[in-house]
Each structure stands twice: as C-alpha cells, then as structure tokens.
Amino acid sequence: MPSQRLQDEKSHLRSLPADNYVPLVTLGRRVSRDGFVAYNGNEYSVPDGLKRLEVEVRATLEEVGLYQDGRLLASHPLLDGRGKCLLDPGHHRGSKQRSKNGPFRNIDDIVEVQCRPLEEYEEVLR
Fold it and tell me: What span, in angstroms and rounded, lies between the C-alpha atoms of 126 and 70?
C-alpha cells in the first residue's frame, strides 16, 4: 500500500536544500572575428585581447557568463528571442588589429548613421 511505503521511507528522506535550484548550461564556443560569442541564436561581446579564441559559456535563465581558464571575461543578461546582439561598450577599445586589412577603427569613422527622433518612425506606422 502506498501510504505504508511512505511511512517506511520517511526516515530515509532528506530535507530540500535552502537555495533554489538554478539550471546552468555549460558549453564551449569560438569567438567570432568581430569579438562576439553566439549562444542560443544571439551574440554577446567579449573583451579585446583574449589569449585564445575559445571561451566557455555558462548560461542560466537570466544571465550569460563568458569564461576563459576559469576566469570570468564578461557577463551579460540573457537576451530574449533570436538574432540580437549585445555589445558591452568597454569590450572594444578600437586599438587592436582585427584583420589583415589593417587596424580596427572606430565604427563612427567608417559608418555614418543618421539619427532621427522616434516620433518620425511612429508617424510612418500610422
């Protein structure tokens, strides 16, 4: 009978841990040429000047941590959806060689982006 089995097993049961269980995904990833690591369809930045191009991703339901040799390189909030990119402004200083074509320059020197108030976009949608 189940109730009798429960009584027999109660002395062997342990109490639940005080801390909540936090699911963690751990996997290896390569850093892209532009300094990002892909995880779950999104990209997260790493600092310039890594020793190697492989990092360990440790992801919870709220945060993505990027590690190398057990040392935390970067921590980002987990992005919802797919196809998004999260850049920490401190990760790209603009002085490091990024390719054989020459030094990585400030993106503002390469691309001119027009800034508009959000109201203009709202007007288009009406």
Answer: 51
Residue 93 in contact with residue 48, Cβ under 8 Å? yes
Closest CA to 94 of 35, 14, 41: 35
Residues 6+ apart with CB under 8 A from 67: 55, 56, 57, 58, 73
Q: Please tell me the distance from the alpha carbon of residue 88 to that of residue 60, in angstroms, as a whole number.
A: 19
Q: State the pTM of this model.
A: 0.61
CA angle, corner 12, sides to 9 and 14, nearest 5? 120
Residue 119 falls in which region: left (phi positive, over 0), alpha (psi -120 to 50) or beta: alpha
pLDDT tens-place string over residues 55-95: 999 999 999 999 999 999 999 999 999 999 999 988 875 54
Using pLDDT thresholds of 50, 70 and 90, give the confidence band for residue 97.
very low
Distance between CA 108 and CA 92 in Å, rounded?
13
